[in-house]
Design brief:
By secondary structure, this protein is α+β, with helices and mostly antiparallel strands. It has helices at residues 32-50, 83-104, 107-111, 114-131, 134-142, 147-176, 178-187, 193-213, 216-221, 224-231, 243-247, 261-264, 274-277, 298-309, 322-327, 335-357, and strands at residues 55-56, 59-60, 62-65, 70-73, 76-78, 238-241, 317-320, 361-367, 374-376, 380-391, 397-404, 409-413, 419-421, 426-436, 444-453, 456-466. It has 16 helices and 16 strands. Helix 2 (83-104) packs antiparallel against helix 16 and helix 6 (147-176) crosses helix 8 (193-213).
Length: 472
């Protein structure tokens, strides 16, 4: 590797030798990968802000209402009764990220993670606009609190707070639903003080993260950086420094015009430290794979620019695996990747099947606990039940009634015989099922009940019916 010492792995890049915060002032990146990242980031930002306000069949496109245990994923509503489907969806997401980590390293962190996108494409770009590039920011940080510093910092922090407040509103829309959020806004904050306080708490958290904690979220708080150490192998394609080419026999060396570096045994790395200066987490990519690296590609763009200036081939830092750098091996679909792909395919198939079989109206009919059967005239046995109907759609189900499908008998509701289940709501109550004892073959028999909307069967469910053993 580039260095014999591995002492850099004993600490993180944002902590100095005294154990204090080492503030990172990254150089403003530029280059083809940075341009690609901007396009991806702007698309994902638009998607993030539009997500709670897009409706599919009346359902919010994405919603994660943890308090009421109601979730919408791509327009599919998940109720508490569908929690197993939501869990499978989350497992699919985790395995999907794990698969891409094994294949392409922390590409999710560098290109798609909301933390990276907001930090690098929103807050730091505002910082560059107000305070200037790396050198100007370092100078401003060191100077006393004069009029210029107060003006720039106040402007920056004010914009940061406004953006944090906007992010908190969008975050709240994902939690409680966009319709409810808009209603709270139009009603006025004084009528929903608890929501306003929650909103300000979220704003403070986001402001703290993006104004002060910053890249330390990726290094300290996020478990994904640790997880990548388990998932990566020498065949994973990551942002890597070609130490074979960069170091050669006698290591790196500063650039000198008209010098024959190959004859001197020096590699192509001119030790300019620009890859370090541009790194948003303050690491030296030449030290190899590190948990701080989020694969943002800023060092690739910067190194390619330097190589072009000194008339050396680009790609000293590039997307590559350790096996490619050392053994010139090309990317292969390894058995490990095949295993992850197989598990992912099976889970997606299971989820698709469950979604296809899931009904829009879910019915549960259960015997009332502690109640025995009742023996009526004409050898009729009666059982009492509670029912719960959950309507998962955005349209009400009208004229709901019950019919016994497996046996001849009657179903009597305690209240109205026909009722409505409101949209995205539930209806519950009590009913009696009466069956001729001669038609019951055991003391605890399974019976099938149909739920109808008018004359249209919309759901069926099974329940237990009890009868006296002495009559068998």
């Amino acid at each position: 590797m580039a260095q014999d010492s591995e002492h850099f792995r004993d600490s993180i890049g944002t902590i100095n030798e005294e154990g204090k915060r080492a503030w990172v002032f990254p150089k403003k990146p530029s280059g083809r990968y940075y341009d690609y990242r901007k396009y991806v980031s702007y698309f994902l930002l638009a998607f993030l802000f539009a997500g709670p306000f897009i409706k599919i069949n009346g359902n919010q496109f994405l919603m994660f209402n943890v308090l009421e245990r109601r979730f919408n994923i791509f327009g599919f509503p998940f109720w508490p009764q569908d929690f197993h489907l939501f869990v499978i969806s989350m497992i699919i997401g985790v395995i999907f990220i794990a698969l891409f980590t094994v294949a392409f390293g922390r590409i999710f962190c560098g290109w798609m993670c909301p933390q990276t996108i907001f930090m690098e494409m929103v807050f730091r770009r505002i910082e560059y606009w107000i305070e200037g590039d790396r050198g100007a920011q370092i100078k401003l940080g060191r100077q006393t609190w004069n009029a210029e510093k107060i003006r720039k910092r106040t402007l920056k922090w004010s914009i940061f707070f406004v953006i944090s407040f906007l992010i908190a509103n969008v975050f709240l829309a994902y939690l409680i639903g966009s319709d409810r959020l808009i209603r709270y806004i139009t009603d006025g904050p004084l009528l929903h003080l608890s929501t306003l306080i929650s909103l300000l708490v979220f704003t403070a958290v986001f402001y703290f993260i993006f104004a002060w904690f910053r890249e330390q979220v990726c290094i300290i708080a996020c478990p994904y950086g640790r997880m990548q150490g388990v998932l990566l192998d020498n065949k994973s394609i990551i942002v890597a420094y070609d130490h074979k080419r960069g170091e050669a026999e006698n290591g790196r060396k500063k650039w000198r015009k008209n010098e024959d570096r190959k004859a001197l045994g020096h590699g192509d790395c001119i030790d300019c430290f620009q890859c370090v200066n541009v790194c948003p987490t303050g690491i030296d990519i030449r030290n190899g794979t590190q948990l701080e690296c989020v694969n943002c590609t800023a060092c690739i763009d910067e190194c390619d620019t330097i190589m072009e200036k000194v008339n050396l081939p680009k790609g000293l830092i590039r997307y590559a695996s350790e096996a490619e750098i050392v053994k010139k091996e090309k990317f292969k679909f390894t058995p490990r990747l095949k295993g992850y792909t197989a598990v992912l395919t099976i889970l997606i198939g299971v989820l698709a099947g469950m979604l296809f079989l899931r009904n829009d109206l879910e019915a549960n009919i259960l015997r009332l606990p502690g109640q025995l059967y009742e023996h009526k005239e004409g050898n009729i046995i009666s059982n009492v039940y509670t029912y719960k109907l959950v309507n998962k759609t955005t349209k009400g189900v009208e004229n709901v009634n019950f019919k016994l499908l497996s046996h001849k008998g009657k179903i009597k509701l305690v209240r109205n015989e026909n009722f409505e289940v409101p949209a995205q709501d539930l209806a519950e109550g009590t009913l009696f099922i009466e069956i001729d004892n001669a038609a019951v073959k055991s003391d605890k028999e399974k019976i099938k009940v149909g739920i109808y909307s008018g004359n249209t069967l919309i759901e069926t469910t099974m329940t237990a019916f009890m009868a006296p053993r002495s009559y068998r």
